[in-house]
Amino acid sequence: MTASSSTQSTIQPATQKLTAEQLEFALWLAQGNYAFCCIEVCQDIGKVDGLETFNGHFQKRTLFRLKREGLLTESTIFEMGIRWQKLTLNDRGKQLLTNNEVKAYA
């Protein structure tokens, strides 16, 4: 692989890449909420839980995008012998929302 001689970056700030739905979900996480994703090989694998208080439209690809942008913290928990990933907004995600003056709303 060769190094590029160009110093210009075409990467946009993350909020310019995020959709309104993704920003809405990030704001919900910023309010101290979290989601769980089942990672156990069982009938619930891939199931997302903990969204009862989220009033927006949720799609799994929202989690994929927030993770790809490095905005989530993951921790493994066990509930009744089943592994789940607890997903929360990390400091980078909170800073991103603060820097862009996105206001959380209830």
Give an account of the 3D structure.
The protein has 106 residues and is α+β, with helices and mostly antiparallel strands. The chain has a single domain (15-99), classed as 2-Layer Sandwich (Translation Initiation Factor IF3), CATH 3.30.110.190. 31% of the residues lie in helices and 21% in strands. It is built from 4 helices and 4 strands. The protein has a 4-stranded antiparallel sheet. Strand 3 (72-79) and strand 4 form a beta hairpin. Helix 2 (20-30) crosses helix 3. It is globular and about 40 Å long. The N and C termini lie far apart (49 Å). Mean pLDDT is 84; it is low at 1-12.
The assigned CATH architecture is 2-Layer Sandwich
Total DSSP E strands: 4
Q: Beta-strand level of the residues, as a percent range? A: 15-25%
Principal-axis shape: globular
- What is the highest CATH level, the class? Alpha Beta
CATH topology descriptor: Translation Initiation Factor IF3
Distance between the termini: 49 Å
As a whole number of angstroms, the C-alpha radius of gyration is 16 Å
Structural class of the helix and strand makeup?
A: alpha+beta
Let me know the largest β-sheet.
4 strands, antiparallel
- Helical amount: 25-40%
Instruction: Enumerate the strands of the largest sheet in spatial order, edge to edge or round the barrel.
Output: 2-1-4-3
Overall structural domain count = 1
Averaged pLDDT: 84
Determine the number of helices (DSSP H or I, runs of at least 4 residues). 4
- Spell out the helices and strands N to C: HHEEHEEH
Poorly predicted ranges: 1-12
